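User: Predict structure, ligand zinc ion.
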Amino acid sequence: MDVVCPEIDRLTSCRTCGAQSLPPFRLCVAAHVACVPCAAYMSRCACGQPFAPGPHCTLDWLARALRHGCKYTAPGPAPSLSRLHCRSRRPHRRYSVRELREHYRTGCALNGFVCPLIGCGHVARVDTIVEHYEAAHGPYERLMSADPLNPNRITFKIRDVSWRTKEFVHKAFNGYFLFITKKSYQNPRNYNLSLSMQNINPSDLLKYTYNATVMSNEVMVTLSLNDSWAE
Ligand SMILES: [Zn+2]
Ligand SMILES: [Zn+2]
Ligand SMILES: [Zn+2]
Ligand SMILES: [Zn+2]
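Assistant: Predicted complex:
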């Protein structure tokens, strides 16, 4: 018999970013659920309390005993009209934790994602696209902050910016950041650099900002994780 608890999806969503989380869970000291990236990179839960160390065995066990909905089945105010559902054969199906992970990897029809890198166009799933980046375009080394006092701020250089459009991917925090650069003449003695940045990991719900300083053929980028609790 399936054990269905209608509140389970709310119970297992990250208090800080809203993402559905699956075991092992991390909690804040006020017992709100945190997803893996929020617990790793945010200084506090959205409620203002710090995260508690270690997994939470009771909640892990409880979540494994219950059945969960696909996260792409978004509950709306009028379910019968506005329900956006995953077009698997049984859109309202409930899954065990193991089945749900497998559903995201192979079965879900709503989480297709096209690789945005120039000339690629590979279609993967939201939950597996970073594996494609690593295998087809990487491997990428995760950049770390060199300043222990500012763990949420990472500075790095983009080299060899040129007159043609170039793409650079940098992995930092939970994101894969695609920078597109192109130099163009403003007048014969001066040039402009157009630069854009996009986080191409669609399952990363954290928010980032960046600053760029141009120096001849290089760009110095400072990428910051927006953590409302950090000073
Ligand atoms: Zn989160
Ligand atoms: Zn909390
Ligand atoms: Zn689905
Ligand atoms: Zn690709």
